[in-house]
């Protein structure tokens, strides 16, 4: 029950995180409370009313960090699991039974144009090194900044990553994406 949760655990529950993201202005009210598939479904419901072809930037950056592990997760940990940039994301993710694969399937069935950013995932291990974090986020931000006009962002996180530079990489990434696209582009994500 909720009474058995520690204060720290209460801060990381989904409703608290959504409220925090909304109040911090990192995501719009609608985006903070929708799932990627329901975001696409709303577009699908409006598909016949508009000739506009929607463009969504999509990506993934996930790792479950163990802060007690003395070794760190470097770029080689992501390379061993998943580390793809730009157009290389699509063929690999479309074949997978992952969140990103499901997002791409939904986008494809609704005629949404996808702008692939990055797909980075590493098995649970120690915190992410500064070098790995900066390489992946740098590529993500460069691709997002050069994506052109987009109607939204759909992004996959795990929710318990820690890096050598921040205790809240997901919040850092969301804030950076928000600063790149501005306040009016919806951002939807999974945790």
Description of the molecule:
- The protein has 191 residues and is α/β, with parallel strands linked by helices.
- The protein contains 9 helices and 5 strands; from the N terminus they run ααααβαβααβαβαβ.
- The longest helix has 16 residues.
**Mean pLDDT figure:** 82
Specify the biggest β-sheet: 5 strands, mixed
Number of strands: 5
Secondary-structure-based class equals alpha/beta
Number of helices: 9
Could you give the order of the helices and strands? HHHHEHEHHEHEHE
Short description:
This protein is of the alpha/beta class and 191 residues long. The protein has nine helices and five strands; from the N terminus they run ααααβαβααβαβαβ.
Could you outline the blueprint of secondary structure elements for this entry?
Elements: H1 7-11, H2 14-23, H3 29-32, H4 36-46, E1 55-65, H5 75-80, E2 82-85, H6 89-94, H7 99-109, E3 113-125, H8 130-145, E4 152-156, H9 169-181, E5 187-190
Parallel strand pairs: 1-3, 1-4, 4-5
Antiparallel strand pairs: 2-3
Helix pairs in contact: 4-7, 8-9
């Amino acid at each position: 029950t909720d009474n058995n949760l520690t204060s720290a655990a209460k801060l990381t529950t989904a409703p608290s995180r959504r409220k925090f993201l909304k109040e911090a202005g990192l995501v719009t009210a609608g985006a903070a409370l929708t799932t990627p598939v329901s975001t696409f479904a709303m577009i699908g419901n409006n598909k016949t009313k508009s000739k506009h072809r929607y463009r969504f930037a999509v990506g993934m950056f996930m790792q479950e960090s163990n802060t007690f592990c003395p070794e760190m997760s470097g770029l080689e940990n992501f390379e061993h699991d998943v580390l793809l940039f730009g157009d290389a994301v699509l063929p690999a993710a479309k074949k997978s039974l992952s969140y990103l694969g499901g997002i791409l399937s939904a986008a494809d069935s609704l005629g949404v144009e996808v702008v692939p950013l990055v797909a980075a995932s590493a098995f649970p291990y120690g915190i992410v090194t500064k070098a790995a974090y900066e390489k992946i986020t740098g590529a993500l931000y460069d691709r997002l900044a050069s994506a052109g006009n987009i109607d939204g962002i759909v992004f996959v996180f795990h929710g318990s990553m820690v890096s050598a530079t921040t205790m809240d990489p997901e919040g850092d990434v969301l804030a950076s994406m928000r600063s790149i696209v501005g306040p009016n582009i919806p951002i939807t994500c999974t945790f």
